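Consider this today:
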Amino acid sequence: MDLYDEACFECSKLITTKYSTSFSKGIKAFSKQFRYPVYAIYGFVRYADEIVDTFHNHDKTALIHDFKQDTFKAIDQKISLNPVLHSFQLIVNQYDIDSQLIEEFLRSMEMDLDHQIYTDNDYETYIHGSAGVIGLMCLQIFCEGNKALYQRLEPMALSLGSAFQKINFLRDIKADYVDRGRTYFPGVDFNNFTQQDKQTIEADIQKDFDKGLEGIRLLPKGVRLGVYTAYSYYLQLFKKIQRMPVNEILDHRIRISNTHKVALYLKAIVFKP
């Protein structure tokens, strides 16, 4: 089983590397014992996200339903022939990750199948499930059973996840609104998106960022640099978005070059919190 477990973790690592150079850099900055667990979580959430965003010629409702069933079956039976689900269940069982967090994440993925315009309540529910609970899953790993530390850092982890997700929404407006017809930000009409709309969203993100940074400073040493690296990348992306006029955000996806990401990683090593 050791060989099979390792092979499954390597599959999740490959998925992380293929889909996200920024998160891959952050994970490499973790102490070794935390890397496979975070790869496992990323692989799991990436597969679910791919179902709702990418597999347009298939029955997405059936696929996400089956994925959910297979997930909890793997957790219950402590094995799966799907390498992503097998590595994920290993971490869920090892760190006793709350099943409610998994339910809330999958519910947010299901929302993408039938929600086009998000109300205030939908918006908060979606962000909590699609980003906040992922931060909490990782936090359970990082705290390694220290419940007092987990409870102290929980609101800060939620804020950091919220900041990341809201930046994703701004970065991906063209794909979400133009290509998929989704409007995540409540009360915002992207046909008449104004600078004031953009600044209101940015002020909300800044509050989440500030609270999230407080939590990063309190994280265990073995993961602090990795989380700070991801924070640095998203902060730079946020600053780039702040400098851009609204019409440019609507026209194309904002990116940070790989060279710049490497520079941010090196800077994080020097100026880590």
